[in-house]
Amino acid sequence: MSIFTAIVDWYFSSYLTLGLVLVIVIHSYFIVRHYNICLPRAWFSKWWGLVAIHAGVLISVTLFRAFLYEPFTIPLRSMNPSLSVGDYIVVEKQGYGTYGTFGVILVDNDKVKPELMQKGNVYAFYPPNMNAPHVARLIGLPGDRISFKGSNIQLNGEELPISFVSGTTHTETYREVLANNSYLIQRAIGVSHSFSDAYVIPDNAYFFVGDNRDNSADSRLYGAVDGNRILGKLALTLKPNDFTLKTSLSERTK
Question: In the beta sheet, which residues pair with residue 208?
């Protein structure tokens, strides 16, 4: 419910804020009008009660964001067509070992639980030597051999299967399949591609690639991401243009 409330607040923004202000003003008026000055004041109306309430709310929100779920906004096109600029996501953080919020790390374990890292899923993480969180799709696990043949990905000697979906003047959309997950990727028309040698992913490291294959800063640029920099898995997506909620950016294949 807290996640849903946060998402609704994102979408309606100032309207909810204005409505809340009006409710508070009206409610305060009725409280004052019917208040009996002969009665002792309740603890929550005293200055220390107000401080305690605000502190409790602040601590609760911080702990919720740090250890359970944290919302983010997508600022770039690196995950097109799955995620667009302005989309809102909620990241599930429990069990991933890197706990913090508002740019402050509270707990930082050396390793993430391997069973939580599944190929084809989308995760939030801190890239090497960067403090801004990124979002990308997990392609390779520790020990995998990965290489790029133009726009195509080869994993452990096998090319990931793709099928054409649609195209425009500047881009083409394909459906890619990885580990029984299928998802959409985007390629730019007329962009030249290079070939890369096979890269073996180190222990406790993970290789991420954006769905916008020709316009994404990902592990092809900064390398594999250490397990202690994984924030969590994308759990919920809100697309404000059509107000749709999604719990996954991939489909299971048989």
Answer: 138
Predicted confidence (pLDDT) per residue in 28-83, tens digit: 777 777 777 777 777 767 778 778 888 888 888 888 888 889 988 888 889 999 89
Residues 6+ apart with CB under 8 A from 156: 144, 145, 146
Cα gap 227→246, rounded to integer Å = 26
Residue 246: partners with Cβ closer than 8 Å, 6 or more residues away = 236, 237, 239
Phi first, then psi, for residue 156 (nearest 5°) are 55, 40
pTM recorded for the entire structure: 0.78
CA 175 – CA 157 distance, rounded (Å)? 20
Q: Collapsing DSSP states into helix, strand and coil, what is residue 86?
A: coil
* Cβ atoms of residues 155 and 143 within 8 Å: no
H helical segments located in the chain:
2-12, 14-33, 47-67, 219-222
Q: What is the pLDDT of residues 229-244, one digit of tens each?
A: 999 999 988 887 766 6
Query: 223: buried, middle or exposed (CB in 10 Å: 19+, 13-18, 0-12)?
Result: middle
* Integer angstrom CA distances of residue 47 from 35, 52, 137: 18, 9, 49
> Which residue, among 179, 187, 94, has the nearest Cα to 138 in the 3D structure?
179
pLDDT at 4: 47
